[in-house]
């Protein structure tokens, strides 16, 4: 789906796209101006809760030979790792809290509890993924170099194993992310600079040794006779974090309605067009406040992609302004329950393991099958579609 086609489908003139951009800029300015001590208290509270959970889990695992202590310790540690990765580490490294000028809670100093070095994450995620969201040929988050996630991606026999690769990626997500900035596709095409790859592998090796040493040697040995059980509990906590992080990330990028774009169409892209691409290339999910905190507030993935460096605790407030803008301009706002969003992403993974000739797009775009967003009058020459449950799809959909 090219950005030019997107503007046609959302019946926006270039002037309307730029006006949408100005309204989104105003939202950014308002949130930046209103950041205050309550926001600072929020992130400090999250860090305190996370550290107390991790400490309680580690202490409980001293009795990990006792099954209730084993599972309780693993559960507390798993939740702590989820909080650290999703709501704290991911968001701190986006610079969401740099305005506080706290040297500890700052994107330049934070290193998170996972195997990928912070420096590599900030390049592969903050820059590459967020700048080139869902652009085929640029965004390595589209399948992580392993899965075929768009019909435009060339099929080969390797893709038949996608259900297996997907299960392995989910279970080993920490390690898959650790290799992300290496750019597996460029390595496969022999385009990777050997010196750059050598430097990156060295950084990854240092971080992996630290993670393995912490979770499977140092902390287990502290528990003495319970060392083996503690190591197993740590593995269970890491698995829990891996599965959860994988599901949340896939729910934000691959349900029906999250569009893909051609790299040619982002040439000379304006800021307003970038905004539009973020809105059309992302998907939200609904849920409780606790669910949103545990997902790093990535249930508001649309808002996160529009404003990745604004505080995550403000995304709900931002959503209450972005959604009416989508209705005003006839732009789809893709959202739905967590289970439905992941179900659609999983269905895409399964379908695209086969050649296109054996499957059909989920839906076909045509003026005859559109829904008109609330607040806009139907115009047969300017078709639009919207979704509130993740059902808006493009020609690029699976």
**Domain count:** 1
Rg, rounded, reads: 22 Å
Helical coverage, percent range: 55-70%
**CA-to-CA gap between the ends?**
12 Å
The pLDDT mean sits at: 87
Give a quick precis of the structure.
The protein has about 400 residues and is mainly α. The protein is about 55% helix and about 0% strand. The chain has one domain (about 1-395).
Q: What tags apply to this protein structure?
A:
mainly alpha
Structure in words:
The protein is globular, with a radius of gyration of 22 Å. Helix 4 packs across helix 10 (227-253), helix 9 (194-222) packs across helix 10 (227-253) and helix 10 (227-253) packs across helix 15. The protein has one domain (2-396). It has helices at 3-9, 14-34, 37-60, 67-93, 118-131, 162-171, 173-178, 184-188, 194-222, 227-253, 271-280, 289-294, 301-306, 315-329, 338-351. It is mainly α and 398 residues long.
């Amino acid at each position: 789906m090219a950005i030019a086609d997107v503007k046609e489908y959302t019946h926006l003139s270039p002037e309307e796209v730029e006006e949408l951009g100005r309204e989104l800029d105003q939202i950014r300015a308002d949130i930046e101006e209103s950041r205050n001590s309550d926001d600072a208290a929020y992130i400090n509270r999250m860090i305190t809760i996370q550290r107390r959970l991790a400490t309680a889990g580690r202490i409980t695992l001293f009795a990990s030979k006792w099954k209730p202590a084993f599972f309780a310790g693993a559960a507390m540690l798993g939740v702590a790792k989820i909080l650290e990765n999703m709501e704290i580490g991911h968001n701190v490294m986006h610079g969401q809290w740099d305005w506080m000028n706290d040297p500890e809670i700052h994107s330049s100093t934070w290193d998170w509890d996972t195997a990928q070095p912070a420096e590599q994450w900030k390049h592969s995620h903050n820059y590459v993924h967020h700048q080139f969201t869902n652009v085929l040929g640029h965004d390595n988050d589209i399948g992580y170099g392993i899965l075929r996630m768009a019909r435009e991606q060339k099929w080969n026999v390797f893709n038949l194993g996608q259900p297996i690769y997907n299960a392995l990626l989910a279970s080993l997500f920490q390690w898959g992310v650790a290799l992300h900035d290496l750019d597996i596709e460029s390595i496969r095409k022999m385009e990777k600079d050997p010196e750059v790859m050598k430097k990156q592998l060295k950084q990854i090796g240092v971080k992996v040794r630290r993670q393995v040493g912490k979770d499977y040697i140092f902390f287990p040995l502290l528990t003495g006779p319970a060392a083996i059980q503690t190591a197993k509990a740590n593995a269970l906590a890491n698995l829990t974090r891996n599965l959860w992080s994988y599901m949340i990330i896939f729910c934000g990028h691959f349900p029906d309605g999250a569009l893909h774009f051609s790299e040619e169409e982002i040439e000379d892209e304006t800021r307003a067009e970038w905004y539009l691409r973020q809105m059309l290339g992302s998907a939200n999910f609904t849920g409780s406040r606790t669910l949103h905190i545990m997902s790093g507030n990535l249930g508001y993935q649309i808002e996160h992609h529009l404003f990745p460096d604004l505080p995550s605790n403000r995304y709900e407030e931002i959503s209450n302004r972005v959604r009416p803008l989508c209705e005003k301009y006839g732009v789809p706002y893709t959202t739905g329950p967590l289970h439905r969003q992941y179900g659609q992403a999983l269905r895409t993974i399964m379908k695209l393991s086969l050649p296109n000739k054996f499957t059909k797009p989920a839906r076909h775009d045509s003026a005859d099958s559109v829904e008109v967003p609330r607040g806009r009058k139907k115009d047969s020459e300017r078709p639009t579609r919207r979704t509130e449950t993740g059902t808006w799809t493009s020609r690029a959909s699976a």
